[in-house]
UniProtKB/TrEMBL annotation:
Annotated ranges, domain CT398-like coiled coil hairpin: 14-194
Protein's UniProt keywords contain Chloroplast: no
Record's keyword annotation contains Coiled coil: yes
Positions in coiled-coil regions: 37-152
Protein name: Uncharacterized protein
Protein keywords: Coiled coil
Domain C4-type zinc ribbon, first and last residues per copy: 205-239
Amino acid sequence: MKAAPQSQQRLLDLQELDAALDRSAHRRRTLPETAEIERLEGRLTELRDAVVTAETEVSDLDREQKKAEQDVDQVRTRAERDQQRLDSGMVTSAKDLANLQSEIASLRRRQSDLEEVVLEIMERREEADARAARLRTEREEAGRELTSVTERRDAAWKEIDEEVAATGAARTAVAKDVPDDLMALYEKLRAQFGGVGAAALHRGRCQGCHLALNTVDLNRIRAAAQDEVVRCEECRRILIRTPESGL
């Protein structure tokens, strides 16, 4: 392949710009904010689920407490009714009086037991309510943190995108100075060799693979015409000759 020395030199400028674009793309992919956002989104999902579970528990305990309080009221009402019968003097039979007094005592014990149940449920509900409140607070804090990190990521993305736009414009201008066939070879090699398609020959060493060329290869390159596109025998990248090539 033939190309004017000036066109070949432009490949080094192009390679530098492409390397900058690759670095920008890598930075965009690996922003620490991106990983932090992923972590916070996962945490928020966990907290939302936990809040729903805690609030459901509170709701269940509310119903349980209401049912227990209704049971207390029923027993209290019945005991009060029996006490009124006892106090009214309407029951005169000794046996009936004994039975009524026994029932009242049983109802009082039952009422006391049910009131203990209500207190236990109230304690559990208070704990569940506090847990739900704490989880809601954590959810809100995680949401604010996610918003803040997202804003930082978006600002970083904007900065990177602006850099990419400027570098891309510069690359377009440089690419106009490179013949199509040389550009096609360069792009092919870039795809094959980790984004580096052309490298300078510096003091007898390829800057692409960083290996020193042997004497035979250096003599071959030394003898090649200035417009001949030469390749590194080790890595096959395009070698660009410069005054520092050591030829």
